[in-house]
Specification:
Elements: H1 7-13, E1 43-48, H2 60-66, E2 70-74, E3 81-87, H3 101-118, E4 122-129, E5 132-140, H4 146-154, H5 164-174, E6 180-185, H6 194-202, E7 206-213, H7 215-218, E8 224-229, E9 236-241, H8 243-266, E10 270-275, H9 280-290
Parallel strand pairs: 3-4, 3-6, 6-7, 7-10
Antiparallel strand pairs: 1-2, 4-5, 8-9
């Protein structure tokens, strides 16, 4: 299995589901996993049996072979479209070991993707770089795609620049099935992010922003005369960093996060600030559940 996760980790995520509070699953088809069932006789896929499902919809032939109950999904079965939008610019290639931003981001995408696949949702994971889509996994549905998802994420590099506004706008205009959209990024984009998020919402997406920063970006452990190099543009900046300037830096980072949170709150975008010294599983299993994004 790819190095992002092991079997024990995946078991922590079983029986979780992503929560849609603003969008409807399937758009036309009604609420997610409602009592209304599809009338089409065309087979689409399987999902795991869960307590309360109609036993008449269990595929007993599959049960006889695998000794596990699966529900047959028809073309009109309810599902939820889940879109994971992963910033893969060079600024994400920062931090050490488990606190490395892009490794953390890939683990977070893998966790959310696995939850979506295991719940029978329709998953698309998109890598954003430059002003467009750099790579894409899916659409896919069903737990059987887990290994492909992990393999896709395991080999991704963080490089180049990402214009979030342009990339999100391009994605919003091109996607055919709006649903939940999770933007995973450090939001280091000179052109901004607001228009891109607005475009997603305008096309019917329910948007959540997972804003990742490394601990050193919150409180840099540096002092003295320094030459700082922009990770994406290569532009240098000479600074003298003393205690007063470090304090000013910390205040400006906090104010920047508060500004983003205020903007998102006004527009009903879920904003989740994350520092990568927070264990990813604590973020998923506790914080996102407490925010009502996972149940």
């Amino acid at each position: 299995m790819p190095s992002l996760f092991d079997e024990k980790t995946l078991r922590k995520l079983d029986r979780l589901a992503l929560v849609a509070s603003q969008v409807r699953a399937g758009q036309i088809k009604g609420e997610r996993r409602s009592t209304k069932r599809g009338t089409s006789i065309e087979f689409a896929d399987y999902r795991d049996y869960t307590r309360g499902d109609d036993l008449r919809r269990v595929d007993w032939n599959v049960y006889a072979r695998l000794e596990r109950p699966f529900i047959k999904l028809l073309e009109e079965e309810e599902d939820l479209a889940v879109h994971l939008l992963l910033d893969a610019s060079r600024s994400m290639d920062y931090g050490a070991d488990e606190q490395h931003k892009f490794r953390y981001a890939r683990r977070l995408a893998a966790a959310l993707g696995y939850v979506a696949l295991a719940a029978g949702d329709r998953l698309t994971l998109t890598v954003l770089r430059g002003d467009a889509v750099a790579a894409q996994f899916g659409p896919a549905r069903g737990r059987g795609h887990t290994l492909r998802l992990l393999q896709f994420l395991d080999g991704l590099p963080a490089e180049g620049m990402t214009s979030l506004d342009a990339a999100l706008r391009t994605y919003a205009l091109g996607a055919k099935r709006p649903g939940l959209a999770f933007v995973i990024s450090d939001l280091f984009s000179p052109a901004g992010y607001r228009d891109g998020l607005g475009q997603l919402q305008g096309r019917g997406y329910e948007v959540s922003v997972l804003h990742l920063l490394a601990p050193d970006e919150m409180d840099p452990p540096l002092a003295g005369d320094l030459r700082l190099i922009d990770a994406e543009t290569g532009d240098p900046q000479d600074v003298t960093l003393d205690g007063g300037l470090r304090d000013l830096y910390r205040k400006r980072v906090a104010a920047w996060r508060e500004e983003i949170e205020h903007h998102c709150l006004k527009r009903r975008v879920n904003y989740i600030p994350v520092t990568t010294d927070l264990a990813w599983d604590e973020l998923v299993l506790y914080h996102l559940r407490r925010r009502g994004l996972i149940k």
